[in-house]
Queue: 4 jobs
Job 1
Amino acid sequence: MATWTPQPAGLQEILQTIRDSTITQNKIQRTITHKLNNFTRVPDYIAYLAYILSALPQEEDQVRTIAGYLLKNNARLILSASPEVATYAKSAVLSAFSDSSTLIRTAAGQDIVAFLGVLEPRNWTDCLQQLLVMLDDPDRQEAAFSVFEKACEDFPRKLDVDINGTRPLDFMIPKFLVLSEHPSPKMRSHAVACLSYFVPVNSQSLFAHIDNFIACLFKRASDEDPNVRRHVCQALVLLLAARPDKLMPEMANVAEYMLYSTKDKNETVALEACEFWLTFAEDPDLAPYLRPLLGRVAPVLLDCMVYGEDDLIWLEGDTEDTNIPDKESDIKPRHYGGKAHGLEREGPANGEEGAKRGAYGEENLDDEDEDDYDLDDDDDFADDMSTEWNLRKCAAAALDVLAVRFGAELLNVLLAPLKDKLWSTDWLERESAILALGAMAEGCIDAIEEHLKVLVPYLINTLNDPKPLVRSITCWTLGRYASWCTQPISEEHKNQYFIPTMEGLLRMVLDDNKRVQEAGCSAFATLEEDAGIELVPYLEPVLRNLVFAFQKYQHKNMLILYDAVGTLADSVGRALSNPSYVEILMPPLTARWNKLQDDDEDLIPLLECLASVTIAMGPGFAPYAPLVFQRCMNIVHNQLLCYQAYQQNPELDEPDKSFLVVSLDLLSGLAQGLGMGLEALISQTQPNLFQLLTVCLKHPQAPVRQSAYALVGDLAMGCFTLLRPHLQAIMNELILQLDPEPKIEFISACNNAAWSVGEVALRYGRDDPEFQQWVNPLISRLIPILLHPKAPRSLHENAAVSIGRIGLMHPVLVAPHLPEFAQAWCQALYEIRDNEEKDSAFRGLCTLVQGNPAGIAKSLLWFCNAIVRWNTPSPELNTMFAQLLTGFRNHDPDGWRAQVSTFPPAIQERLATRYGV
C-alpha cells in the first residue's frame, strides 16, 4: 500500500499558521483560528499534523507540541480519512511517543489516547500490544502507563471487549496487579488507578480477580506515597458503590482506614476518603451498616469543614471590596429562561423544585431534571478556589445526606461538638459549625426545631461578626432555616425571628464585602420564597434596600440582585402594583434597561427579572409596557433572522438562544400582567407578534419552543380574542409537539404545549365548532402521553388536565374514549394540590362520566380515591361529585355496597362522611 507523504506547499502553510498561532494579538488569533478551522476540510490534515509532531526534529518543540494538540482535538477526522492517511497518522504518533523530548512524548501520548477512543481499541490492537510491551521497558513504562491510565479513565467499556476471541483485559488486569507492587510510586499509582476505573463498569475481567484486587488495595493502603493512597481511597469508594457485598465483611477495617484517611494531612487523600462517607450515606440499603459508625464518622466530617490554610489565602482578600470591579472570570455562566408549566403536588412528594440556592456557598442542583444545566464545573478554579470541589464541601455534602438519612440520631451525636465550636473563640471553628448547621437543616429540622429559638438569635447576632467569611456562611445557614423563621405561627414568633432575620439579611445585602452581599442576597431570595405574602407589610423598606444595592453592586452580584427582585415579585404578586412601590422599583430597572444594548448579555437577566415584575405589577406596569414590548419584539425578530443566517451558513457562530427565550418569557409576563391592554401594542407592531410566535414554535432549539408554547397559553388566558384569528397555524404546530416519548431536551416544550392546549380549549367555550376540528387529533395524542409508562410525571399531569378541560368543553366527542384513560387520569392527578386548573379538569372528567357512566366502571376505586383526596373542591365540583356518587349508589345499591366494601377503609370513611354514600 502506498505510504503517505506531505506536499511541501501544504506543509509550509500549516507550519506557518501554527508558528503564527503563538502570537498573542487578538486580531491575529481570530484569523489563525479561522484558518485552522478551514484546514479541517483538507482530507489529509491529520497526517500533516502527525508529520510535524513526529518527523520535524529541527522545528521548535512548541510548534511540534501545538501540532500534537491540534491532532488530539481533531482526532475524529481519522474516521473519515483514507487508509494511507489513517495508517500514517497512527504510526507517526507511536513513533513520536519515543521522541527524546518530554513535551513531544506527552503530546503524542494524548494523541494515542484520543485515537484509541475514536477508533476503539478493537480497531487498533497493535497499539495496545505495543503499550503492554512498553510496560516492561524501564525507560518507557511510566509514559506507557500514563496513556493506559487516561484510556482506562476515559473509555473503560471500550477496553472491556472481546477482540477476535481474546479479551485484552484478561492480560491487562493481572499485569496491573503485579505492577501495583512496583518500586516506583508513580507506577504503583498508575496501577491502582487503572484497576479502579473498571469497577463502575462491572468488568468481569476485573471481578474475576476481585479478591486479589481487594488484597492489593489493603496492601497499598499504607503506601508512603499520597498519590497511591488517594487512588486506594478512590477504588474503595467505587467498590462501595458497585460491589458493597465485597466490602461489608471487611467493613470494620475499611471504615477504620477511611476514618484515618479522612484526617490525612494530604488534602487530596482526605477528599477521596471523604467521598467514601458521601457514597455510603447516599445508599439507603447501606444505612444499617453506617448507623453503628455514625458516632465516629460525623465528628470527623465536622472537623473537615474548617477552612484550610490554602483556602484562606484565596478567600480572605479585601474585607471591603464592594468598589472593586469583578473580573469576567469571576462570573460563571448561568442558565436563563425556560418558562415551564407544572402543577404542585401535595406535601413533600413534589421533588421537582429545580435549582436550590446556595449549597455550601454557591447555587446547586440536587436533582437531575430535564434542564440543560452544566454542573461539570469542578475544574473551573478561575481566580476563586471556592468554586472547586474540596474537602470542606464534600464533608458538608456528606453531612447533609447523613442528616436526611438519620435525622435526630445525627443531631444527638453532633450536639456537644457543635456547641463547643459555635462558642469557640477561634472564628474558623465557629464558621465551620455554622456551615454544619446549614448542611443539617433539611434532614434534622424536626429534631433541631426545639433548639432554633436559641440558634436563630445566635445566627442573627453573628451577622455582626467582623470576619466576612463568618457573615457570608451565616447568611447561607439562615436561608436554610428561612422556612421556620417565616412561619406565621404568632405575632411573638414574627417579632422574635422573622423580622430580625429579614432585617439582618437586608443589612447583609448592603454589606461592603462582595462575598457577603452575594450570600445575603441569595439567602434573602430564599426568605422571599418562603415568606410569600407575609412580606407585604414590609415591602417599602425591602424595596428601598434592594434598590440601593443597584447603586452598590458590581457585575457578578448584580445578576443575583435581579434574581432577588424577580423572586420578590413572584412571592408578593399583585401587592407590588401599589403605585408607590412601582415608583421605587422601576426607575433603577429602567436606568439599567436604557444602558444596555440589545446584544449585551447583561440584558438577559434583566429581561428575566422584568418578566416576574410585569406579572406582579399588572396594570401598574402599563406606562413602561410600550418600550418593553417593542424591544422584546425587536430582539425576537433579530434573533430569528440571526438563526436563519446561521442555518444557511453553519460556519457562523450559533446565536445564543437565551436572548430569544427570555424575550418570549417577558412577552408572556406582559400577556399575564396586562391582558387586553396589549391590544394596541400588538396591532401597531410589525412584524406581527403571531407571525414571529409561529416561527418560534418550530424553532430547532428546545428552550425556544418551550417558551413559545408557554406564551401561547398565556396569550390564551390574557387576550384570547387577539390570539384566536391566528390559531389555525398555531394549533397545527401544537398538535405535532404533543409526543408520548419526546427527546429529553423537548420534554419541557411538550409539557407547555400540553398545558396551553387546555387553556385554548377553555377560552373557545362549550361545543365551539371551530375548536371541534382539533378535538380528535389532540385526544389521539394526549391519551398516549397519559398512558406512556416512561413519560415524565409532569407530562402525565399536564396531559390529564388538558384531556379534562377538552372534555369539559366537548364532552360528546371525548366521552367515548373514557374507558381508555380513566384510571391513568385519576392516578395522574389525585396528588395535585387543589387549584383552579385541577378543578376545571375534574369538572371535565365528571361531565364525561355523566355522558358515559360505564366508562368509569372499571376505574371506580381510583375515581373515588381522587374525589376524597380533594380538600376544598369548588361548590360546583362538589355538587358534581355528590350527584355522581349518589347516582351510582341509587342505580344499584347492593352492587355499590359490595364494591365500596373492597375499598381501603380511609376511602370508605371519607365517602360516607362527605357524601353519605
Job 2
Amino acid sequence: MGGVAVDQSAGGVKAPDGGWGWAVLAGCFVITGFSYAFPKAVSVFFKELIREFGVGYSDTAWISSILLAMLYGTGPLCSVLVNRFGCRPVMMVGGLFASLGMILASFSTSIIHIYLSTGVITGLGLALNFQPSLIMLNRYFSEKRPLANGLSAAGSPVALCCLSPLGQVLQYKYGWRGGFLILGGILLNCCVCGALMKPLVAPKSLKAKDLEQDKEEGTEGRTKKPKAKLLDFSVFKDCGFVIYTVAASIMVLGLFVPPVFVVSYAKELGNEDTKSALLLTILGFIDIFARPTCGLIAGLKWVRPRCVYLFSFALIFNGITDLIGSQANDYTSIVVFCIFFGISYGMVGALQFEVLMTIVGTEKFSSAIGLVLLMESIAVLVGPPGAGRLLDATKNYMYVFLLAGSEVVLSALVLATCNFLFIRNKSSEPAEKLENVAVMDGAKAEACSVAAEVDDVEEKGATEEQEKEMVKELKQEEEKDKEKVEDVRPESVTVDSQEVERFLKEPQQNGDVATSPETCL
C-alpha cells in the first residue's frame, strides 16, 4: 500500500513525466477548480433566487448539494464511459453538458428547473470532466506525480478566490439570469481542457513487436484475449484499497464541515459580515500554497514510499485543528484556526488521490476512483446536514467542530493502524519465504558442490587408470610388432664376417653389380 506502482498506460507506454504532460496538468488545474469551486460560487446567487421564487434558504442550498452529489455519485458511470470511449471524448461531452445546464438554468421559471439544470446536468458535466482529468494526470506522470497532484489540486482554492468575486460582479450588473448565462459560457472552457487530454501512443518499435507477436500467435491467440472490463470490481480484493475507501468515507463526514460553518461561527461571536467573510479568503490563500508544497514534499525519495503515513499525519493535523478551533472565542483565534486549517486542508487535498494512485496503479485507477467517489458521495450528503442538525439541537458551534475533528482523526487512525497491521505483515510474509528459499537454495548448492567435488575426484582416478591401461596396451602392441618383424626375417639375412672380408678383397669390374647378401636386401 505504501509502495509506488509502476505507472504504465493500457498500451504499455511508460509515463513521460513531462512534455505534453504539462499541458495535461494545466487542463487538470482548470477542471479541478471548476469542479470544487463551482458549487460554492453558485451560492452567491442564492439571495436573488429566494426573492425570485419565494423559497427558503434550505431550498436553495439543495442546488449545491445536488451538484456535489452528482460530482461524487456518478463516479462508476464516469469509469464505465472512460473505459469504453476514452478520456478526451468523455471530457468534451462533459464540458457541453456543464455549459448547457447553466444556460438552461438562466431560463428557469421555478426552483425545480434549477435543480434539474444546474444541479443534475451541470453536475454531471463537471463529473465527466473531473474524473477523466485525474486519470490522464496519472498516466502522464509517475516520478513527478506527487508534485503534479499538488499543483492540480491548487486549482480549487484559486478558482474559489476568482469565481466568488466574479459571481458577485455578474449578479450586480446582469442579475442572476445573466450571471448564469455568462458562467455557462465560461464552462465551455472544459471542452478546451478536454481537447488537451491527448492519449499516449506506443512507439513504432513497440507496435512492430506487437504485430509480430500477433502474427506468431495467429488467429487463435487473438480470440483468447480477454476483453477489458468497463468497471473492475476486483479492486475490492486489494486490502489496501478497502482500507483507503473506509477511511476516506469517514474523513468526508467531517472534512467539509468547518468551511461551511466558520463564517457563521465568526458572526455568532459578534464580528461584522465583511470580517467574517474574510476568513474564507484567508483559508483559501493558505490552501493555494499548501497543496503544491505538500506535493513537492511527498515526491521526495524517502517520503514517497511512506505517503500513506504522510496522508494520515495530514488527517490528524486537520482533526486536531478542528478540536482546538472549537474553543475559539474571539476573531484572532478564529484567524489562527483558519491558517492552520488551510495548511492541513491543503495537505489532505494534495495527497488524497496520490495515495489512491499509489495503491491501485494506473490500470485499475479509472475503476477505483469511481467506486471511491460513490462511497464518498453518501458521506458528503450525510456530513454537513448532520452537523446542521447537531447545531439546531445544541445551539453551540463548539460541538459541531468537535464532531468534525473527531471524525477526521478517526479516519486517520483507521488508515494508519490498518495499514501498519495488515499491509506490513502481508508484505513481510513473502520476504520470510524468500529468505527460507534462499537458505534452502544455499544448502542445495553446498550439497551439489560437495557431490561435484567427489565426482571430480572419481573422474580423475578413472582417467588415470584409463591412461595407464592405454600405455600398457601400446607397449604390448609394440612388442608384438617387433616379434612379427623378427619372425618374418629370413635366415639368409644373417651375415658372416669372413664373407665380408673376402668380398672387399676381390676386385670388381666397372659397370658390374656386386652381388652380396646386403645388396640383395
Job 3
Amino acid sequence: MFGCLVAGRLVQAAPQQVAEDKFVFDLPDYENINHVVVFMLGTIPFPEGMGGSVYFCYPDPSGMAVWQLLGFVTNEKPSAIFKISGLKSGKGSQHPFGAMNLPQTPTMAQIGISVELLENLAQQTPVANAAVSSVDSFTEAQMTPNPSEAFIPANVVLKWYENFQRRLTQNPLFWKT
C-alpha cells in the first residue's frame, strides 16, 4: 500500500504493520537523511473518506521515541516529500503510536503512517519546518528572475513565515478561521 524513499537508498515497499491501521518504515543511519518521500504504491487505495497521517520518529538522547507529525497522504495526494534534517532536535507532538512498543536503537529512526479519517487529517498541524522546507526548496528553484513575471522579494516571504510561525505558536488552529 505504501512506499518510502530516501535518496541514494533502495525503495522500501513493505512497511511493518504494527496495528490494523498503523505502518512503520525503519530508517537506519537517519542522521544522514535530509528528505524522505512517502507515497502510495497504487495497488490498494485508502477506503473512502480515509487518508494517512505521516510521522517521523527518532530516539532522543535517553533512547525514548520522539514522534513528530510531518503531513499526510491521501488518494487525491498520493505522495509527499518531507524534510526531516531539521527535526531531529525538536520536541515531539501528539501521535497515535504512543502505546506501541516499537524497538529503538541510537541510529534507527522510523516513518509511521496512521490510517485516519480525512476530517481528522484536516485538523492536524504538521511540524512547521516540514511545511516550510517545501517553500524554501520552491523559492530557491524559482530565484531566477524573469522580467515578464512578478517577483516577490525573499524578505517579504521571510516576514510572512515569521508571522505565520508566531501565530501558529499562539493558536495552532488559527489558519482555520
Job 4
Amino acid sequence: MWRKASAAALLALAVGYFYHGSPDLPEHILQYVGLPSFRASPQSRVSLEQVISAAWDALITLPTRQWSKVAVGVNACVDVVVSGVGLLQAMAVDPGAGQDHEVLHSKEDLKESFIHYMERGAAAERFFSDPEAFGRIARAAAEFPGAKLYVGGNAALIGQKLASYPDLMVLLCGPVGPKLHEMLDEQIVVPPESLQETDEFHLILEYKAGEKWGSTQAPQANRFIFSHDVSNGAMSSLETFVASLDEFEPDLVVLSGLHMMEGQGRELWEERLKEAVSAISDIRKDIPIHLELASMTDKDYMNSIMQEVMPIVSSIGLNEQELLFLSQAGEGPHSELAAWKGVPDVGRVSDILLWILEQHGRSEPSSEADLTRIHFHTLAYHILATVDGHWGNQAAAVMAGARVASTQACGLRSVDPGKVEVKAPLEFHSSHGEPREKLTLNPAEPVTAWRRGNVTFHLTVVLVCKQPLRTVGLGDAISAEGLVYSERKTQQPF
C-alpha cells in the first residue's frame, strides 16, 4: 500500500512540476491527473509524453525478490553496423524490385531482400550461404566510412544489458573471439571453453525513417541483418552452456540463437533441434528458462520450435513479425494475414498470445507445459501475457521494457519527452472477435491490464524515439529489462 502511495505522490509532484510551468494541460490528460484546465499559450502545454515519462519514473519499481545469477547463451558475435543503402551503392548494386529470400546466395539476393524489408520498415535476419562472397561484403562493410563495431548476438546483448546491474552476476556462453571478448562488460564471466581464435561477424544494414533508394522509401527506421556464421548456426556452444550451469548455479537461464540454425537446411536443423531439446531438458526444473526468438522464414522449423521447445521453457520474448509467423506456422488466430498493416491491432495480438499459452503453455493447471509468460514488443507498444499465479511485478516489468526501448533508441540515459512520441492508440479492444472488452490507457498510470481465462495481459505504450540512433539490440534490451523487473512466484495457486 505504501508503495502505491509513494508512487502516486511522486507522480503528483512530477505532474505538478509540469503544471506549474505549463498551466494548459491537454483535456484528455487532465481527466486522469485531476487538475483543472486553464488557458495559456500553446508553447506552454504539457505533453502526453511528459505525463507518461513521469508516470514511468514514479511507478517502475524492482521486485522484492531479485535474480542474483543469470546464465545467458548461446549466440554471440561482433556486429558491423553500416548504412544499408550506402553500402549497397558502394558495392555498385543498382536499386530494383524487392523480393524475400529465405537464404541469401549472392549480392543480388541481398539487394532484393533488403529492399523487400526496407519498403515495409520491418526487421529481418538471413543466412548468407557463400563464405567467399560474404567475406568480400564483410570487408567492404568494415571499411565503409562510418561503420561501427558493437557487441552482437542476442545472448551477448542480453548479457551486456543484465551486466549493467552491479549486483547481478552474468555467465555468457557462446563463440567469443578476441574482439568480442575485449568489448564485453568486465562483469560478464565467459567459460574458457567458449573462447575461440576468431570472431563471428554479423553485418547490419540500417536505414532511417523516410530514407529513399530508387523507388523504395522506408516508412520507419529499422535494419536488415545477415551473416555466414557456422558456430552460431549450429548452436555449437549449447552443450558447453548447459554443462556450465551446475557450477555457476544460476537462478535464471536465458537462451537464444535457435533462429540461427534455420539456414543449415532441414536435415541438419532437425537433428540439432532434437539435441537442443535434450540439452535444455537437462536444466534443473526449478530454474526458469527464458527463450528469446528472432526472425525466421521456415514454417516447419518454427512449428518444430513451437511444438518441442516452447513447452519446456518458462518464458519467451518476441516481436510482431515473429508473433504473426508463429501463428502462420501453427495455423493459429489471424494466420490468414500476410503481414501487419501499420501498428499491429492489440485485439489480434492478444488473441495470438492467448492461443500460444493455451496450446503450448500452462494456461490450465492440468497442463505439463512450463510456458507461463510471453513478452511481446512492437514499435508502438508492449504486452506481457502471463498465466496467473506464476509471475509478479509484471506492470513494472512491461513499463521498464518500454522505457529502455525509448532511452536506448535515442542514445540517452533517461527519456527526453521532446525527442519521443506516442504512436499507439490509447483505446483498443481485448480481442479482435466477440466477446471483447473496450479498453483505454490512462497516461498518468500507463499500464492497462485485462484477463482472459487464466491469463493476465499488461500493456503499455512506447515513447517512440523520433530520430533513433541505433535500432539493433532493442528487442534484447527490452526482454532483459523486463526479466530484471520480473519476479517468479514460488507458489502457483489457481
